[in-house]
Amino acid sequence: MRPSSPSYIADFDSATGMLRATSNYLHGKDYPALGKGHAMGWVVQAANWLPQSAREQVYAIGGVTEGHAPNKLHQVDAEKVAEWITARYPLRRYQAVMVGSASGALTHLSAAFDIPWLPQTFFVPVRHLSGDNDDPVDAMEFGRRYGPLLLEANPELQLHHMHDGNQDRLMVEYMDYFRVKRRTLGKAYERFLEETLEPGGTIIVTECQRKWPTTRIGERHVFQHGALGGATEEEFLHGSERVEEYLERYDSSVRRWPSPEPDGESPEAEWGFEEALREDILRFAARRGYKVKRLLFTEPDDLSPLVADFYRDWYRRRGMKGNRLLVESFIMLEPYWALRTGSVPFWMKFNMDPSVDTIERYLDSHEAYDEINLMLFNNGVEAVGFPQIERWKQVLARASRQGQFIGVSEELHPRDFGSLGRYYIETKQKIKARYPLPGPLPLQRLWDFMAQHGERYAVELRDA
């Protein structure tokens, strides 16, 4: 049995979700209810029977139950986290291992090549019951007080304290987002690489180069107001008519957020890559005789068109049509069932306007799909940059034969918390096709695909 995550690690987070989906696939398993199993899937579906305000409170309280006590942040142990991460994977030889930034598209590369992914970033939710979701200055001071407890206990970590009163409005009412990034591999990651990577194998460093304005609190501590999604950096810092309307609609006491003044830029808290880790990987690889490749991209979903086209080409080489598209959203993704149903995976980072833009651009520039199946993550907030359900229906209408939602209640979105369990059930129920799982591809197939088609994508593959 694979170990449970440390109590201070968030369950409903990009890195945790993508780790679970990837490691489950490498064990030959699927990813029900965000990796939490069938029972949890039925529990979250029951929440949909509650009135809207009650559903929102259940979602917020569900988040704060994951929160760690701020005065106990010294208990966070980066090496224990790394031991848990590596213990999730089968102990066998791999042709490559990915290390670095998260992206849902990477889970499908892991599945295609049967290789693990080790995240650089993980999320520690910290209880802040007296906080205010519209007061980032108060949040920053909270982090200034308690952040050193975590950092002094973990000299290998860098703290990116993030406050997003837009998309994460329900969650930051009761807790703060402490995202931490590894600056070194550490003993557990090094041991895993030595035990599982083939002699002369490849470490693929996944580097999301997205930056965000930040305020420096300490040598290894920055504060980030806002996050990737519907609102822009400028709107978080200086407001806009959209922000005013949003804050008025949610009965806030302010009409723009009192943002701390940034004094620089840093790797984006959730997705961005901290370069110190690459230097440590190069040191380790040189000593052990491993090759190193760098996979560079700016937005976390820049990889999605590349992975979708790679899968479509792969399916057609196998004699399949490759005309079924599965559009995934944040941590609602299914590498196992994408392959079992012969679906071309296209991952969106969230449920906001930029994600609709991304899938629309992809469909504009590609041969039409017979089927489009679309998931939508529900975060409970009609935030700045939130697209109405009609716009998503226009995406489905692009299918030449059938377009349908997977696990989405059109009436309840974005407060359809039952979707967190239902997306998995409907993936199997609504997509009828079944194919055997293929064997792993040789890594050279990706190198060849990038050499032939790489200029089409906002992705770069480099030798280190």
Describe the protein.
This protein starts with 13 loop residues before the first helix and ends with a strand. The mean pLDDT is 94. It has a domain at 50-98 and 116-297. It is an alpha/beta fold and 464 residues long. It contains 16 helices and 15 strands. Helices cover 38% and strands 20% of the residues. The strands form three sheets. A six-stranded mixed beta sheet has the order 3-5-4-8-7-9.
User: What strand order characterises the main sheet?
Assistant: 3-5-4-8-7-9
- State the end-to-end CA separation: 37 Å
Question: How much strand?
Answer: 15-25%
Quaternary structure: single chain
Unreliable stretches covering 5 or more consecutive residues? none
Tally of helical segments: 16
Overall pLDDT level: 94
Largest sheet geometry? 6 strands, mixed
Total beta strands: 15
Q: What percent of the residues sit in helical stretches (DSSP H or I)?
A: 25-40%
Radius of gyration from CA coordinates: 21 Å
Apparent shape: globular
Class from secondary-structure proportions: alpha/beta
